[in-house]
Specification:
By secondary structure, the protein is an all-alpha fold. The chain is built from eleven helices and no strands.
Length: 326
């Protein structure tokens, strides 16, 4: 039986459709040293991330461990962030690759959102009374069915020529041209990556200062996106930083991770409460009662996250100003 005639479940169990060497990458990940051109650091980062995508692909296809899909999505976001911040160093091909990564990220994100929701709901309802367990299982089952449909769409995307082309295009960006290892390649230095942290930091700071006293949920979510971009920029800059700077950047990365966590808790609570509202009309009385209980718990979680994030933002602010000397 050929690969083309394999049944869908067999295709899902296959390993990655390609390897780093098949994409033209080296046997080992490329490395960048302090003092190398900034583009060399960007390419090395992409090289590492492409290998991570390939390593996570079999688990994402099979669905055995949701963590594989989660890490594949995180890696994809890092790649998109690096290209957004540093794509000009790699030439005009960077933006089309970033757009294709966004296409694939939508398929990953749909399934991941259901994984987070279902896992969280199961933890919540496990604490409910025995008489409510049947209705709770029915409620969770609705989202499990929706997740299965999203997973089928993801598997189709993984098996598509478009996905294979996306990998090839990304690998082409990651491969280092000869001029980057020559002495003449001094247009962009690695120090520019550290100085470049000021841009995502200023965007995050501006978004924080623009918030009203009781900001909409979407504005809080926007902070999380800005915070992630700052974190990923810091992770890239850390590879190019001097020893003292690298230590300062580590503090910034830790602070942005903590900010991402609390803002992520806020977003998860908002999504869960909204999901409960969206299914109420299709539920019977008992299951609707369970959905209402869950929504109330999520709104409490949302309130707590709103109280917690400003203190963590202060840490991010101090750490970023130390690194960028603003």
């Amino acid at each position: 039986m050929t690969a083309e005639t394999l049944p869908t479940n067999a295709k899902a169990r296959r390993g990655p459709s390609t390897t780093p060497t098949a994409l033209g990458l080296g046997e080992e990940p490329s490395k960048a040293r302090h003092g190398d051109p900034a583009a060399t650091h960007v390419r090395a980062q992409l090289d590492t991330q492409i290998r991570e995508l390939l390593a996570r692909e079999p688990g994402t296809r099979s669905g055995t461990d949701p963590e594989d899909l989660h890490q594949m999505r995180v890696t994809l976001r890092r790649m998109r962030s690096v290209l957004k911040m540093s794509g000009s160093l790699l030439g005009p091909a960077a933006e089309p690759v970033r757009a294709e990564l966004g296409w694939f990220g939508q398929s990953l994100g749909e399934v991941r959102d259901y994984d987070v929701l279902i896992g969280h709901l199961r933890e919540l309802v496990a604490e409910f009374e025995a008489r409510d367990q049947s209705a709770a299982r029915e409620l969770v089952g609705k989202f499990v069915a929706d997740r299965a449909a999203a997973k089928r769409r993801l598997t189709s995307a993984l098996s598509s020529p478009r996905y294979a082309t996306m990998l090839q295009s990304a690998a082409q960006l990651a491969r280092r041209p000869e001029h980057e290892v020559s002495e003449e390649s001094t247009i962009e230095s690695s120090a520019d990556l550290v100085a470049g942290l000021s841009k995502p930091f200023k965007k995050l700071s501006k978004a924080v200062l623009a918030l009203p006293s009781d900001p909409p949920d979407d504005d809080i979510h926007a902070l999380r996106i800005h915070g992630k971009r700052l974190r990923y920029a810091a992770e890239l800059a850390q590879t190019a930083a001097k020893k003292k700077q690298a230590k300062q950047i580590r503090e910034l990365i830790k602070a942005t991770k903590d900010l991402q966590t609390v803002l992520g808790d806020h977003q998860d609570a908002v999504i869960a409460a909204d999901r409960m509202r969206s299914v109420l009309d299709s539920l019977d009385g008992h299951t609707g009662f369970i959905a209402g209980r869950i929504a109330e718990l999520e709104l409490r979680k949302r309130t707590q996250a709103r109280a917690d994030w400003p203190m963590i933002w202060t840490r991010v602010d101090v750490a970023a100003r130390t690194v960028t000397a603003i």
